[in-house]
Write the structure tokens for this entry.
Amino acid sequence: MDKLIELIGRELETAFERAGWDRSLGRVSMSNRPDLCEYQCNGAMAGAKLYHCAPMMIASGVVKELSESSIIGSAEAAAPGFINLKLRGEFLAEYLRRENSEERLGLDGAGKGKKIVIDYGGPNVAKPLHIGHLRSAIIGESMKRILRYNGYEVVSDVHLGDWGLQMGLIIARLQELRPELPYFDPQFTGEYPAQAPFTIGDLERIYPEASAKSKTDEAFAAKAHEATARLQRRERGYFALFRHIISVSVSDLKKNYAALGVDFDVWKGESDAQEFIPAMLDDMRSRGILRESEGAMVIDVAEESDAKEIPPCIVIKSDGASLYATTDLATLVQRERDYRPDGVLYVVDKRQEMHFIQLFRAARRAGIVRPETWLYLLGFGTMNGRDGKPFKTREGGVMRLESLISDTNEAVLARMRESGISLPEEEMKSTAALISMAAIKYGDLSNQATKDYIFDLDRFTSFEGNTGPYILYTMVRIKSILRRFRESGGDGGLAVQPARSDMEKSLQLALARANEVIENAAAEYAPHRLCQYVYEISNAFNSFYHETKILSEADEDIRSGYIALLSLTEKVLGDCIGMLGFSAPERM
């Protein structure tokens, strides 16, 4: 389905051509003066320079050609040469009818036939999720949904931190605490227990203990390094313990991500890439890409056009150990083998930008990805407290994600009770959970991902202003009207009618841009564009609602048109907040 602005643009191009001017001058944009017009074209100014004539002469000629347009209801030439446009009501209504009848609001499916891997989440096993994991999860989940809505086949990968010294630390500490376990007995030949000898609570205590001890106890640090080496050699007992650690951690992570409304198609980690490293390094050596630098093996990735220094990508340290870059390159090898994606999107803290510049260039130099495969970093800023510093608990520690969700739930419940909302207790709690998720996610996603933002619980949970609860309150209002209409005997099969007021037309114009906004949000990797859009629609609807008698309208045809418009509004808002990762309750 053609986008509205494309149809208007083609109409203007034809008018320019008929008036004797170059049709490329007919570019159209939304008006920056909605009090004067709905769309505008500034091509007459560019045409004046091209044809050495007055812009008003060009504009007037184009306006004359638009007098019989089936799309443009009114066109005016305004000094010094603007062309101000308003759409015909019947054309706009018919466009909305088509949008409502088409799958995915008339999107053409820009991603059809294309496959993308999204790498987001990135938690470490044996550690609880905390607010430092929030932005990657929320932004990545939203991008997954936006891209799928645009027709892309998307594979989401949590990419666990599950390899290296942290595993050795846990195993070494566990051996101190439970030396009798069969995993540490080299003579044991039986089957290891199916049940892990620890809980997630044990792991969350053991890891920080081990990490702290390794900094002050050289003997223990040596044991942890030895345990890491034995694990990486896949010694039977150590590898069995590793599998237990992964199983227990992933089970807990899935539960916590589910509470955030986030899920992944693939639960792979750094450990899954290890088997690809030897062959990858051999290939790099055969290509002459690796060179020695102070005992380490590196890939030169600097380019002549660089405005700043880009250091070589270190692939193997001087002691023979691999690094994040090694694992990330091997992960790309694995993804190319398993999925052969058209692109890979990483949703990671923007402070890791240099790592990804090196990674992407090294991958291309090594031929790991095809020339046409795109690699993109959606680097996000930090979530800060009101003091402008990274968000902390009142005690100054890092807040667990489940604590943040719980605190937000409590804040929302308090606001609901203060505002006089009365629902059965269980429904009150389930509704509060939906609202708090909207508060958290909208509060994050409404900011441009690359920028830092202030997490303000009071503002995010407000039912007024540019917040998630305000969007949900608008949707619940629409749901209530539609429910009352059905209860009064109203039925479906209704069609949007030409607008009868400026407020109604403003809402229609906003709804008609749905496919354009959603496609741009995918192309720009910009969930905040969707947030801006749902806020715009919510404001447009509420303005229309406050000036219009909807259910009490005596004329049945007019009332039916209103109901059809509300149904489409609910559909657009519902699809958009679904892509943002939250949903609306039936009542508030």
DSSP finds 21 helices and 13 strands in the chain. Residues 554 and 560 are 11 Å apart (CA to CA). The mean pLDDT is 95. The first helix runs from residue 4 to 18.
